[in-house]
């Protein structure tokens, strides 16, 4: 006995593929509305829900023997067939509702048991006993001696980096990698010890990081009833441009107006050495020297002038070999009193 539910093998395979993609086969229109009685918010126009649609192949297929048995028992009429079709729809909807209920129940049980997984795969406990995702805070490492160091750009004078013995191996390795990146053979005779030499040279160029103002002064601050200008000029200065890691050099002139305290003359040169032996820009170097002298003897005023030649302008870039950069910092009376400032500038310009 033939049946309208009978499906050929080819059609059965095609329907199975369609069902696997969750595509509605009995209607081309899909309506999304409010939740119905079984908890589903989306349904097909023909009454199939998203879960029931995937069961379509298995639920509507009726074997020929079952249909024959129904026919023999007088249950195969049109009225009984429609009733059976409605029962199938109801059963499918009930199955879908049971599936949703069991899914919600499992989610609730997981929440009550305090088990939750965050976005990063970690489980954490939120208020109320429920687990919620909470990112692990990033740990920061504080190196000994670097607590007050802000990229070496500030006026901190108590910076104490690692000892040279600790820094040399890593710096030498970095220089070796740099030479290799340039295409050089680091094993040839002329370059065998170049990485170590370069590392030691860079440590010397930046030795100011290891020095403090207190160490440089070494107690050479003296009480003296002197209130006239003191000027030490043409102090040689060598530093490293922090933008290109090439040298700049020049001369520094320092003047201050004492207030009952004077500084050992050589200590002015040592202050220049502390701040110039770092990665620098000339503008900042000028101000750091002036501030350090102020901290040392609390004078009525401090004036600093630097005239420098920058190799980043001479041997690269614009390549202006005769250019010089002049910067100045005036503090206290040197800023406020034009006559005092003029006297200092006159003394500096006299040869």
From TrEMBL:
EC main group: hydrolase
PANTHER family documented for this protein: GTP CYCLOHYDROLASE 1 (PTHR11109:SF7), GTP CYCLOHYDROLASE I (PTHR11109)
Keyword list, A-Z: GTP-binding, Hydrolase, Nucleotide-binding, Tetrahydrobiopterin biosynthesis
Domain of life: Eukaryota
Organism for this UniProt entry: Anopheles aquasalis (Malaria mosquito)
Quaternary context: Toroid-shaped homodecamer, composed of two pentamers of five dimers.
Ranges of compositional bias, category Acidic residues: 8-20
Keyword Transport among record annotations: no
Name of the molecule in the record: GTP cyclohydrolase 1
Catalytic reaction equation(s): GTP + H2O = 7,8-dihydroneopterin 3'-triphosphate + formate + H(+)
Domain called GTP cyclohydrolase I: residue spans: 172-348
MF term (GO), any: zinc ion binding
Pfam families per record: GTP_cyclohydroI
Tagged with keyword Nucleotide-binding: yes
E.C. number(s) listed in UniProt: 3.5.4.16
GO biological process: pigment biosynthetic process; tetrahydrobiopterin biosynthetic process; tetrahydrofolate biosynthetic process
Listed InterPro entries: GTP-CH-I_C/QueF (IPR043133), GTP-CH-I_N (IPR043134), GTP_CycHdrlase_I (IPR001474), GTP_CycHdrlase_I_CS (IPR018234), GTP_CycHdrlase_I_dom (IPR020602)
């Amino acid at each position: 006995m033939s049946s309208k539910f009978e499906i050929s093998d080819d059609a059965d395979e095609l329907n199975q593929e369609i069902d696997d993609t969750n595509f509605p086969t009995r209607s081309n229109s899909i309506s999304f509305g409010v939740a119905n009685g079984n908890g589903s918010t989306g349904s097909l126009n023909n009454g199939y829900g998203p879960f029931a649609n995937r069961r379509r192949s298995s639920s509507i297929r009726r074997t020929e023997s079952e249909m024959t048995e129904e026919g023999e028992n007088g249950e195969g009429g049109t009225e009984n067939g429609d009733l059976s079709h409605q029962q199938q729809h109801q059963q499918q909807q009930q199955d879908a509702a049971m599936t949703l209920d069991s899914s919600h129940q499992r989610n609730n049980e997981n929440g009550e048991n305090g088990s939750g997984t965050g976005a990063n795969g970690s489980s954490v406990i939120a208020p109320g006993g429920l687990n919620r995702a909470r990112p692990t805070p990033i740990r920061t490492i504080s190196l000994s001696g670097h607590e007050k160091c802000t990229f070496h750009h500030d006026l901190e004078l108590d910076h104490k980096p690692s000892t040279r013995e600790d820094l040399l191996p890593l710096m030498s390795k970095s220089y070796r990698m740099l030479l290799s990146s340039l295409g050089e053979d680091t094993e040839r005779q002329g370059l065998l010890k170049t990485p170590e030499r370069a590392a030691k040279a860079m440590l010397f160029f930046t030795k100011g990081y290891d020095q403090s103002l207190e160490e440089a002064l070494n107690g050479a601050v003296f009480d003296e009833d002197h209130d006239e200008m003191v000027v030490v000029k043409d102090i040689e200065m060598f530093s490293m441009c922090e933008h290109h890691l090439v040298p700049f050099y020049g001369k520094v002139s320092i003047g201050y107006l004492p207030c009952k305290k004077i500084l050992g003359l050589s200590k002015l040169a040592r202050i220049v050495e502390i701040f110039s032996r770092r990665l620098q820009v000339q503008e900042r170097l000028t101000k750091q020297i002036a501030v350090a002298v102020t901290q040392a003897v609390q004078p009525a005023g401090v004036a600093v002038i630097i005239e420098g030649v920058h190799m980043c302008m001479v041997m690269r870039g614009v390549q202006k070999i005769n250019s010089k950069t002049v910067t100045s910092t005036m503090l206290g009376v040197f800023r406020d009193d034009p006559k005092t400032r003029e006297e200092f500038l006159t003394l500096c310009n006299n040869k």
